[in-house]
Amino acid sequence: MASMDETFRPDPTGGGPVDLLVVGGGINGTGIARDAAGRGASVLLVEQDDLASHTSSASTKLIHGGLRYLEYYEFRLVREALIEREKLLRIAPHIIWPMRFVLPYTPQARPAWMLRLGLFLYDHLAPNMTLPKCKSLDFRTSSAGRPLNGKLARGFAYSDGWVQDSRLVVLNAMDALARGADIRTRTRLVSARRVDGMWEAAIEDVRTGGRTTVRARVLVNAGGPWVSEVLRERAHVNSTKQVRLVKGSHIVVPRLFDGPQAYILQNPDKRIVFAIPYEQKFTLIGTTDVPWTQAPGHVEISPEEITYLCESVSRYFTKPVTPDDVVWSYAGVRPLYDDAAANASAVTRDYVLDVDTQGDQAPMLSIFGGKITTYRRLAEHAIEKLQPFLPVLRAPGWTADRVLPGGNLGVDGFEGAVSRLAAQAPFLDAQLCWRLVRNYGSCASEIVGDARSMADMGEQFGAGLSAREVDYLVAREWAQTTQDILWRRSRLGLHVTDEDAARLDAYLRDRHPVATPAVS
After folding, report:
1. What structural domains and CATH numbers belong to the chain?
2. Mean confidence (pLDDT) of the chain
3. What is the DSSP string of 207-256?
4. Is the pTM of this model over 0.90?
5. What are the FAD dependent oxidoreductase domain coordinates in residue numbering (predicted)?
């Protein structure tokens, strides 16, 4: 396979200015790059780390309307998110799938009438909903009540979606690349200034320190937690808009319950916590909402947050959870729009798009807030904001019904795709077949290629991860490190041993050393 650097395009316009310079390789940045490239714009995206290496891989991994946002009267946001949920289920059926959520009723949190009203609105705010609607549950007879501690007799079930969040980012970047965009990871924006009606930006390869000057007609600030830093310190633009950083943390424990359902649990402080089946053998628990005033780069869960999440779950389940049960944790900083709410949990999850032109100079669009479910619509709104400055963007919108890479599973859907891969590669065990299609969809056949045995798949790194899969991730998905592969691309970090990870690290050093890019 080709090396990662062979997939890079040194300049999408052959030396001239690009239409859009997008700063940030999270879900919003890659979503905008994909949409704009598909309309014919020349796009350069720079990300200082790996794709989805921060907020976009630290979510609760849900494609949902946000049931709890209804009590903050966020009706427009919830409606938009529910409409987007249906669209995303269609365009990425390999990495997004329906999930049923069980909501135990506890009178100390919210009254039953409020829950019924909220669930009714949730089912009816969006037209053409395809998922099963809400229903009442009697935990004395429902299988959903078996893991619970018996203190609660009834509850509700409703539908939402699950997503492999970091893979959603990568697939948007892959599709943007296929449509002509230049995607550069490990490349940071050093500075940007307006010169002769254009943005002139210095970008730096963080691996080598090499710097390049690029010109762009529009600068898109999708820096996430760094949005204010990009605005004020790198582009020297003043803005009245403020970002409010809120840390959200999650823990993973051995599986607490059987079945495909997830649980949404109400706490005495009115916050909610999810308990979600995760990676077959585990349960994902989260999230917290903690104001964050430090640098957003390296974020970890605190002991207090671990205790809070353990107590939240233990309040409901027969099997209590303690900090000793935690096998993994992760935390991220959400860059929410600062609406001056006193409570971090009440800060709006809606987004604000701010265009700065300083008169009639080159525009800069900055993104405040947002959530992964609405990224595609956010990108459309961003394009609409930029259409007066870039006529090429006036081409019709197209992302609502074009599948992401690997999403063309065929009329028989996911199970049919698994069956076809099993027929192509009968030497793969059933679990590995399932995982490859769940991660890569129809692209899984490209990974297998002409292999006729497991030996043909190359060196094995544990949990079914083969050299062929690693080579694919390096060549097609910008993976460069063991962390990229195990935690953001394949999600196998929970399943491999330290020895496996060390062998993978050695393989990447030997077979895929990062090439030094040319410095101009």
Report:
1. 18-55+167-242+349-393 (3.50.50.60), 98-163+244-337 (3.30.9.10), 412-511 (1.10.8.870)
2. 93
3. TT--EEEEEEEEEEE--GGGHHHIIIIIS----S--EEEEEEEEEEEE--
4. yes
5. 19-340
